[in-house]
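thought: fold this chain, then report.
action: predict
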Amino acid sequence: MKKKEEERKKQIMKAAYNAVSTLGYDNVTLQDIADYANVSKGVVHYYFKSKQNILSELLESITNQIYSYEIEAVNQHQNAIDKLKAYLDAVFISPPKNKKFYSVYLDFLAQANGNEEYKKINLNFYENCWNIGQEIVELGIREGVFNEELDSLTTAKMMRAIIDGSLIQWLTSNEEGLHQYYKDACMKSILKLLN
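observation:
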């Protein structure tokens, strides 16, 4: 029974992600989420108290999935440069996936100012990202490939700022073909920061 409930909850969360990515955060309703999940609104209410409840869980779920994917990719490599490349490959996953994630994520960020729960989830996501960056920076310093005077936390924060800034610029350029350009420019900028 529990497995079936978990599957149903996942189905609703996936529907919420698709609904927000298509309709936008402000426009999506519980009925839209139910329609995307092919269930009744009552079924959605059974698993989630409110639209806010679904969307909070959605933000936490998608940021945790992104982090898990990134850390798994990074952990498959031994040296700092390979870890950095794997990190960027994991972040710049594909134009459709990046477009969907950043469209939804930016909608959530626009709400975060008045929502303490979103702020907390977002800070947790960034702390996870900074940990990945710090690990890469500290390893690169030990290997002698990055500037030994770098502060690893500050550098990790700037790395993520460059990554997200690059992807947001790519998204707003509305040119899918520039995805690789922004990924390459991002890598060059990060390497400059590290040297």
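thought: worth noting. The CA atoms of residues 60 and 157 lie 20 Å apart.
final: tokens above.
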